[in-house]
Design a protein that fits this description.
Layout: H1 8-13, E1 41-51, E2 60-71, E3 76-87, E4 95-106, E5 116-126, H2 128-134, E6 139-150, E7 154-165, E8 172-183, E9 192-200, E10 207-216, E11 221-230, E12 238-247
Antiparallel strand pairs: 1-2, 1-12, 2-3, 3-4, 4-5, 5-6, 6-7, 7-8, 8-9, 9-10, 10-11, 11-12
Length: about 250
């Protein structure tokens, strides 16, 4: 909070990962710079509903993602989570789609530079059921995280992500995103509101706009919810997100 206003070049720089980064802690989708303190844990549970096309009863899926993050050191965190999914048009009960692991590090110490810098490396392993029903893949994703605090407990963050699918060899994707959140009341530790922008660098790029709110429930618990909208046909038309985070 050395300056009350974010430099314009920060805003121009920010970016984000694809909309399936379900272990996001501070935001709904995007990765944040913060990590669990060494020896402390974070339990997170998210429920997401996606509408791929309107007026098509089978063009949807929902996903439940429980996970745990654990601080290995004060600047290094490990996360493991799984996706339980149900797809419209797929003749199957809800199934475990994938198991994923993620290591995240804070590269710079907070406040040492004008921007706080972190990075994460994630791997997702599809289950045999996922491979059979929806051709599940096994991406490895590297994400660079750039963050800046400003004002009273407000934050802006950007992610640059590169994902490559191991089994498909050359299948790869570059994605970006930008998110900002700020308190909604005089209490800086109370309810907060934010918005996330998620897209990619392809020749026919997609863009998702995801406004959300973050509500402290009881000590240690935070509830997050938001609705995402796609500005074109490259991404899901609508997505609804609910998440609960508990720090222990």
């Amino acid at each position: 909070m050395k300056k009350k206003f974010l430099p314009v070049f920060v805003v121009l720089l920010l970016f984000a990962p694809a909309a399936d980064a379900h272990h996001a802690l501070e935001f709904i989708v995007l990765e944040s710079y913060s990590t669990a303190p060494g020896g402390n844990g974070i339990f997170h549970l998210s429920c997401d509903y996606f509408v791929h096309r309107y007026r098509d009863n089978d063009a949807y899926n929902y996903e439940i993602t429980p996970g745990i993050s654990y601080g290995i050191t004060s600047r290094l965190m490990f996360d493991v989570h799984t996706h339980v999914s149900k797809f419209g048009g797929v003749n199957s009960a809800p199934f475990i789609e994938a198991v994923a692991g993620n290591v995240q590090a804070r590269i710079t110490e907070k406040g040492d530079l004008p921007f706080d810098i972190g990075a994460s490396l994630a791997y997702e392993y599809p289950t045999p059921t996922s491979k059979d029903l929806i051709q599940g893949t096994d991406p490895v994703t590297f994400t660079l995280i750039i963050s800046r605090d400003f004002g009273a407990h407000s934050n802006v963050v950007a992610n640059f992500s590169y994902a490559r699918e191991i089994s498909l060899g050359s299948a790869q994707e570059f994605t970006y995103g930008l998110a900002i959140k700020t308190p909604l009341s005089p209490d800086p530790h109370g309810a907060a509101g934010g918005i996330e922008f998620i897209g990619d660098f392809s020749k026919n790029p997609y863009l998702i706009i995801l406004p959300g709110v973050y509500l402290p429930v009881v000590e240690g618990f935070v509830f997050k919810t938001g609705i995402g909208f796609s500005v074109n046909d490259r991404a899901d038309k609508l997505s609804v997100h609910f998440a609960l985070v508990y720090r222990f």
